[in-house]
Amino acid sequence: MNSLLPGYQIRRGSTVDRALLVKFIQQTYQDMFPDQDFAHLARTVEQYFSTDTPLWWVDGEDQEDQEVGRLSGGENLSPSSSPVACLWVGNAIDQVQGDRHAHIFLLYVVPEHRRRGIGTALMHYVEKWATQRGDRQIGLQVFQSNKPALNLYHQLGYQTQSLWMLKSLHPEK
């Protein structure tokens, strides 16, 4: 483990962390859309999580911080398996230039640890990692309604390159 910032350690995850990653990805969507069921996101993890899509966990240095990691489903995770944040990165191809680049699948900080610099530290961490492997850019997708995340990404120099547009084919009644 390495220090991410004072009070927090970062460690590399592995494919044995699949269930915990599912809980974190479900929680990030549950925070935005509390009335929906996100059990289907397990298929996303099943399809895309591999040794080629690195995962990092952030742990608090003291036991109290570790025990904060309460995720959806109402279960308390044991201190050794309750990180306070995670970062999951995949690969994408720039459709204009044709270059492979890092794509952030998930950046999540549990609510009790937000606004402490963890998200910013993780973004700097992944930028350094991507630069070291030769990437020239990093991509991510963020909901337009997620103002805190948008503010973070704008402060770090991220710019909108394209818009993802949807049309419902089944009008609501």
Describe this structure in words.
The structure is a single chain. Helix 1 crosses helix 2. The protein contains five helices and six strands. The chain has one domain: Gcn5-related N-acetyltransferase (GNAT) (Aminopeptidase). It has a six-stranded mixed β-sheet, sandwiched between helices. It is of the alpha+beta class. About 11% of the residues have low confidence.
Topology:
Blueprint: E1 2-5, E2 8-12, H1 18-32, H2 41-48, E3 55-60, H3 63-66, E4 85-93, E5 100-109, H4 118-132, E6 138-140, H5 147-155
Parallel strand pairs: 5-6
Antiparallel strand pairs: 1-2, 2-3, 3-4, 4-5
Helix pairs in contact: 1-2
**CATH fold-level assignment:** Aminopeptidase
The whole-number mean of residue pLDDT values reads 88
Order of helices and strands: EEHHEHEEHEH
- The side-by-side strand order for the widest beta sheet comes to 1-2-3-4-5-6
Unreliable sequence segments:
63-81
Measure the end-to-end span: 52 Å
CATH superfamily: Gcn5-related N-acetyltransferase (GNAT)
Q: What is the total number of structural domains?
A: 1
The CATH architecture would be 3-Layer(aba) Sandwich
Kindly state the number of beta strands.
6
CATH class designation? Alpha Beta
Spatial extent as radius of gyration: 16 Å
Biggest beta-sheet profile: 6 strands, mixed
Number of helices: 5
Q: What portion of residues is helical? A: 25-40%
Beta-strand residue fraction:
15-25%
Shape: globular
The structural class is alpha+beta
